[in-house]
Amino acid sequence: RQELLGCVERRLRTMTADRQEVLRLRFWAGLSTKETARVMRKGESAVKMLLARAVADLRERCLDET
Questions:
Q1: Does the pLDDT of residue 65 top 60, yes or no?
Q2: How far is CA 11 from the centre of its chain?
Q3: Greater pLDDT, 6 or 38
Q4: How far apart are CA 51 and CA 48, in angstroms?
Q5: Nearest-5° angle of CA 51, CA 26, CA 52?
Q6: DSSP code string of 47-59
Q7: What is the pLDDT of residue 41?
Q8: Predicted confidence (pLDDT) per residue in 12-59, tens digit
Q9: To 5 degrees, how large is the angle CA 41–CA 21–CA 49?
Q10: Residues with Cβ < 8 Å from 55, sequence gap 6 or more?
Q11: How many CA atoms lie within 13 A of 11 on its CB side?
C-alpha cells in the first residue's frame, strides 16, 4: 500500500496541470463531474475524458510498478 501511494504521488508530479487538477477536484475535494467542469471552465465531456486518461495512466504505471 505504501508503495502504491508513493507511485501515485510520483506520477502526479509528472502529469499535466489539467490532469492533476481533475484528480484533485474529483477525488480529494469530492466534487461532481459537473462541479469539476465548472471550476475548470471546461465541458463535462472534457472533464470525463481528462479523468479517464489520468486514472488510466495511474493504473498503468502504478499497478505495473507494484
A1: no
A2: 10
A3: 38
A4: 5
A5: 15
A6: HHHHHHHHHHHHI
A7: 98
A8: 999 999 999 999 999 999 999 999 999 999 999 999 999 999 999 999
A9: 70
A10: 23
A11: 21
Measure the CA–CA gap between 62 and 42, rounded to whole angstroms: 28
What is the spatial distance between Cα 46 and Cα 37, in angstroms, rounded to a whole number?
Answer: 8
DSSP state of 11: H
CATH number of 2-65: 1.10.10.10
Amino acid letter at 28?
A: W
First to last CA, the chain: 9
How do the domains of the chain map onto residue ranges? 2-65
Q: Which three cell numbers stand for residue 66?
A: 507494484
pTM: 0.84
